[in-house]
Predict the structure.
Amino acid sequence: MSGGLLPVRLGVNIDHVATVRNARGTTYPDPVRAAEVAIGAGADGITAHLREDRRHISDADIDALMGFLQQAGKPLNLEMAVTDEMEAIALRHRPHAACLVPERREEVTTEGGLNVAGHHNRVAPVVRRLREAGTRVSLFIEADLAQVQAAADIKADVVELHTGAYCDAAREYGLHSAEAEAILERLTKGAAAARRLGLEVHAGHGIDYATVAPIAAIPEVRELNIGHFLIGEAIFVGLPEAIRTMRAHIDSARAGADA
Ligand code: PXP
């Protein structure tokens, strides 16, 4: 890379392997096996969302993922709601990273990220305790300047910018439509503002092979967390191939942005 842009890490979200398993109440397909295959195919880390209703990933999955990833020397990014139960689980496991996400309607901003600005008093102590336990804390927010500022104010390490609306607009109206470009512009400005405030910038939600390139080209973005599309694509081409193709799209977008 000529201009010195740092590479973008790929975190693979394996939640929907558990969704398929749970559809039949079997022990397969195993999310830990998916993590192993993903790491083998070049994923930099694994993301899993332990939801309050346990609709996909289970507590036992988190135990097993922690064990496997510690052995493999790769990070787990635990997505979690801001609840006492989830905080206790995170503090027990002390994963490399925790990403605080909204699960209840009242915690959600208009577009869908965590309303950090509106729930400052509840989110700030959780961020502090997780950080004290040695976990890097990320907040899943909209690329909205008030939310970015609130994340910096409560001393999060990272913001993960919600790319769902961008990806939906790109699929509905076209990648280069005015609708998609306007949201991409917001993401780009949000990433720059976050970086200026000392936050590391990640992005995720709804990303596929087409939408990954413009997002990976945002200079401040350091990590993408991608799940649903990769697990879906794996049905047709296999998980390693899906991950390698995504990785190639990320690297080529990054090299293009750096040229
Ligand atoms: N990042 C966060 C914070 C998420 O909640 C999710 C969905 O669990 C993802 C990334 C991955 O989104 P997708 O499965 O649509 O790729």
